[in-house]
Amino acid sequence: QVQLVESGGGLVQAGGSLRLSCAASGRTFSRSFMGWFRQGPGKERELVAAIRTNTGSTYYAYYADSVKGRFTISRDNAGNTVYLQMSSLKLEDTAVYYCAAGTLGTMTGLNNYDYWGQGTQVTVSS
Fold first, then answer.
1. Reduced to 3 states, what is the DSSP secondary structure of residue 61?
2. Which of 2, 7, 1, 3 is nearest to 22 (CA)?
3. How far is CA 92 from CA 25, 63, 68, 126, in A?
4. Could you tell me the sign of the dihedral formed by the alpha carbons of 116, 103, 52, 69, in that order?
5. Are the C-beta atoms of 97 and 36 separated by less than 8 Å?
6. Which of 2, 35, 48, 89 has its CA 20 to 30 A from that of 122?
7. How far apart are CA 23 and CA 17, in angstroms?
């Protein structure tokens, strides 16, 4: 089983920046990709960004249109930790952010994520 632990959430003013971290442990060899989801109050879960985590894999990242140019996803060399650097934050970015991992299928497939962290709250204030 893959275990995911998120950190870095908190309160930030609009226009500011925040970095989320997700540490993975367990059967790390089975992870192919990891992503960040978010869910605002009364809203559907949304894939924010995703990245391949296989060691030595060709770099590829996905971003939702709503965060392109503002958010950056990255990982360490071993693929054990993924980050979400959030800049130029807006009020609508307020949500619970979840780290997730999958092994099969494409990283943009919403049903392809098998392991989930418990979530971290990000609140953007004016």
1. strand
2. 7
3. 31, 16, 14, 11
4. negative
5. yes
6. 2
7. 20
Give, rounded to a whole angstrom, the gap between the first and last alpha carbons of the chain.
40
Distances (CA, A) of 79 to 11, 28, 50, 76, 126: 27, 8, 13, 5, 35
Mean pLDDT of the residues in the chain = 91
Name, in order, each residue with C-beta under 8 angstroms of 126's C-beta and a sequence gap of 6 or more: 13, 14, 91
pLDDT digits (tens, 9 = 90+) for 31-84: 689 999 999 989 999 999 999 887 666 668 999 999 999 999 998 877 789 999
Q: Can you read off the two tokens belonging to residue 43?
A: 């809203």
